[in-house]
């Protein structure tokens, strides 16, 4: 592999929160790295300002091309033509690939992209490569993201005339903690320190809170609580949040998220237009890549047009005597993507249910993200909430980055004389965190949608007499069996004083702070004693840092149920 | 069972704060110790609720009768002050408590349970005046007694150093208190009174002692308090004691006047049992720190009455 064009400023992925102690706190910038587009915003002292690149664009394509051995990203690079991005030399959609193993369906669906995504289906990282001078040059999503972030950083530094270190990034709700570490890793590689990672809809919620706050300032009164449903669907992910807002405080009530997005809609359409496209493009020859690119661009165009017109004529010559000439109408489009829309609906319903909010109590419905332009999406959001219209005060593509910039200013300790930064988001955990107990069951310790920061604990005990060791395996997710959840790490406790089964009390405590750092503590207490029998273990998670599927299997193979735990009966 | 929750949580507080003091150098470690010691002490179900040792209503600065809306507003206001996004990492612990308090008070069933548990706590805390002093006596009763004005006390620990059988430090409140009247010989007591840099150790009449000791205890404040004023005690405890005893006398007189209350019909045996019970509770409360003092306690128990 060629020498990377960036330097790794910090290899430690888990550096703690360091609030800048200087007298003039550096304002953290907000970055929204979308699956397809990216933007940067910063609090300029009186309002949020979106930064533009040299070509005067606020929204920059998220990709990196490896042409001529020097990678260049969508911030500075000017594509001569859309097809250049689809020649195989450009890597994009990294947000969908980052932190995923090759058994993940999302990785599999990325195989039809012009660059190379190879899988072995055994739970390791997928092989990702860009075509450079007829050579497949391997890379990783982290590297691609880091190169892209370096460009963004350089752009912001030139415009703001200062060094940039602290950033607030938006992430999808459905990101696992492992994926979050990959994002942090990419930031560290780019020399950026992640001050906060905000789930995208919560960034939107913060912007909403600020807008409501300003309205209150302008017309006295009416500062009562407002409940908003935020639906955010971009190219890669779909997120929903319910927030209660009053006095500049946005209190997230529930989050729900999934890996469906515009990319799925696009692929469904491509498949609809050319049913055997996957087989056709699977061997990634030069000609196939070209045809694939042509199909992709044509389909994308058609989807855009279907947002404003009822039918569209698709006319594309893919070469190799393969021509597509078809009229697609909106109904057909909606039928092809029925499953995607159904998933969107179920996410909204689930989120409202988790938040314990009735649709009649919802004040505003906010739909943002690229997919919010699709009429079907707008209709389904409105019909679930039984409303005639959506909230109008936001630019659907800029809302998340503006919220991130606000959070950047708030978390950097900036205050505004006019009270525009008198804001706060109270976050919740998007996924449950718990441990494995007997027979691979998953016992959540911190349930989903728990207000952060939080600290919870549960007591467990041994399953065998004189069991001196236990393995506490920490998982994140919603599955009842650990196999469906993400492994975060493990703590092995040794030297438990011999005692009959069920006697030693193993306390597992989990602590999540406001910057979403998870600490797991485990201690053993014997009856009649008030002090831990052996030193307490404290571990920052996630600690597992490779193909997590493998690691879980290896743990199971080596230790099996020998080091199991059971929950103490008196569960809360 | 709420009853056990109430009584036991009192034990956990001083221990926890003591542990914090000892292991204060390592924050997370001490945090764990604090937690783990507490865990053993009480019913697990009550764990989160009484951990803080602080009334949730006081924490949020709302009245016991406040509705969900008021709690919500108070919570948000406090979050804006203490959330780590604003207050930095130092706000972490406090925000944890706010979140816990909010969660409990916003859920009807949890709140009902909690209300029941604090009612118990309040009784044990001595919110109801028993007419008995908190400190025990060593040897015969004397006309004068020692009293620490905890408002003035700076928690220097000099008195405990000089007369460790008489004074103790209340680690939770960071001030000294008389545990046993004349627990040490007179010379030691003299030195300890002299050594107090703020002159907060007073000789008072024995009759005044119960009222003073009752009033100096921080009482959970009800009504619409501002946060931080969750616990209160009179600024001038001596003045307060005077008016308090006066009020008591008036009340007594009233009761005398109207009907003969059950209290007066109490037999001497009942009174003794009651005194013993309250003594026992008192003992339990600090027994873990003061195991070694138990002998003195029991030898003095009867001499008081």
UniProtKB/TrEMBL annotation, chain A:
Residues 1-21 are annotated as: Disordered. It comes from Quercus lobata. GO terms for molecular function: ATP binding; ATP-dependent protein folding chaperone. PANTHER family: HEAT SHOCK PROTEIN 70KDA. This is Heat shock 70 kDa protein 8. Belongs to the heat shock protein 70 family. Pfam families: HSP70. The keyword ATP-binding applies. The gene is LOC115993580.
UniProtKB/TrEMBL annotation, chain B:
InterPro entries: 4Fe4S_Fe-S-bd, DnaJ_domain, J_dom_sf. Residues 250-278 are annotated as: Disordered. Pfam families: DnaJ, Fer4_13. Signal peptide: none annotated. Residues 55-118 form the J domain. Residues 144-174 form the 4Fe-4S ferredoxin-type domain. Residues 250-266 have a biased composition (Basic and acidic residues). This is J domain-containing protein.
